[in-house]
Amino acid sequence: MSTTIEQAPLQVGDRVEVEVGPVAHGGHCVARHEGRVLFVRHAIPGEQVIAEITDLGPKGRFLRADAVQVVEPSEHRIQPACPWSGPGRCGGCDFQHVDLGHQRQLKAQVVAEQFSRLAKIDLVELLGAEVVCEAVPGDDAGLGWRTRVEFAVSPEGMVGLRQHRSHEIVPVDTCRIAHPAVQANSVWSDTDEARKQRSGIEAIDVIATQAGVGVQRTPEVFSVPAPEQQRPPVVKESVAIEDNTWAFQLSARGFWQVHPGAATTFSQTVLSWLDARPGESALDLYAGVGLFARGLSEAVGRDGRVLAVEADRAAGGHGAQNLSSTRQATMRRDKVDRVVAGLRRSNESADVIVLDPPRVGAGKQVVGDMAALKPRAIAYVACDPAALARDTAYLKDVGYVLQKLRVFDAFPMTHHVECIALFAPVGHTGD
Questions:
Q1: Cα separation of 287 and 301, whole Å?
Q2: At 102, is the secondary structure helix, strand, or coil?
């Protein structure tokens, strides 16, 4: 008679040796141990590592772990530029241990996998080329780019950054991915007086404005405490595109692209692909402070019209001011789903649409109502490839197909990417 000895289930703190599998969306890689799925951070596909369990997933369906020892390293493993990057340290970066070129290959693989799984689309087959994650001008080999950083503050007034999936604060004296103007800010002061002044503050946002690529101005730096003691200051940003420089105002705590080259690169891509013509009508949905609406208003001219829609009261208010010099552009402060549904009921139409939704995506209802407006082209700006893939499937169901896709490394050293996709009605051809 034989007996089977069952292995005790893995618990937080246990260590196991695993072979690291493919990269997954979220800054980790997939591994397996005795049939259990592990999502392992600080690893690279193909490595053999010792993984320490850090968390149990819902109902034990999977485990989270950190690679605390590398048994067989990947050829793409490097020494992190940041001394606070690694297991149990700052959670702001996911890929400091991976050479920059391979980081981008991993991000491209994630985008392709999300489209395959959620949209049932083989991007290579559809687009006729491998997915490539492109560099964005304005960083220093993946460092020195983040123009907006929120630093945590301990009850003792110590400044730091939080661990991954934790409220624990890691004390730091700089941030390697922060813009040089942010790094030079006095927020790092560790004197007794500076700590005392930070008493009662939970976090400090440090914002370097006017730091965009091609903007001929010295960056201005603002520090905004949280909780806010007064209304955040209004700051200015500029976007240089060819011979034009567009000015925008917004709240210091409002949304703006954090990479110095992002606003210009994304605007150029969207405007080029949509190719809006004089006299046409355009929609800018989830418009923020009017970045894309500003460019569209130039393209459609005085005989055209641009409707920008933004639900956030502060952003919409600033957007209305930013667009006030172009009479063909209007900012409507309202929910996108309500506005688009109303346009559909009124049998309105739009020639071109920019869709820049939050991380969760636009969703099936918005996509359906938007398609009913019969645009000849839709440019979708996405900060989450999974949401983009889901909405791509919805667009396909209502007669719009993916024609072009660019993937941008607007957040080096992290797992985040920005995608811009172009959709057109079935039967229409692009260049």
A1: 19
A2: helix
Q: Residue 164, Cβ neighbours under 10 Å: how many? A: 21
Strands of the sheet containing 169-171, edge to edge, are: 169-171, 159-162, 148-153, 203-209, 220-226
Q: Could you give the 3-state DSSP secondary structure of residue 311?
A: coil
Q: Do 208 and 182 touch, CB atoms closer than 8 A?
A: yes
Global pTM exceeds 0.90: yes
What the chain holds in terms of domains, given with CATH numbers, is 12-77 (2.40.50.140), 106-139+254-425 (3.40.50.150), 148-229 (no CATH)
Burial class (CB in 10 A: 0-12, 13-18, 19+), 66: buried
Under a CB-based contact definition with an 8 Å cutoff, are residues 21 and 44 in contact? Answer: no
Q: Using alpha carbons only, what angle is made at residue 227 by residues 198 and 237, rounded to the nearest 5 degrees? A: 95
Q: Which two tokens stand for residue 415?
A: 């797992």
* Positions marked catalytic: 383
* Average pLDDT, consecutive stretches of 10 residues, N- to C-terminus, the chain (431 residues): 62 97 97 96 98 91 96 98 96 97 98 98 96 98 98 94 95 94 90 90 96 94 90 96 93 97 98 98 98 97 98 97 96 98 98 98 98 98 98 98 98 98 82 38
3-state secondary structure of 338: helix
Q: How far apart (Å, rounded) are the C-alpha atoms in residues 249 and 338?
A: 26
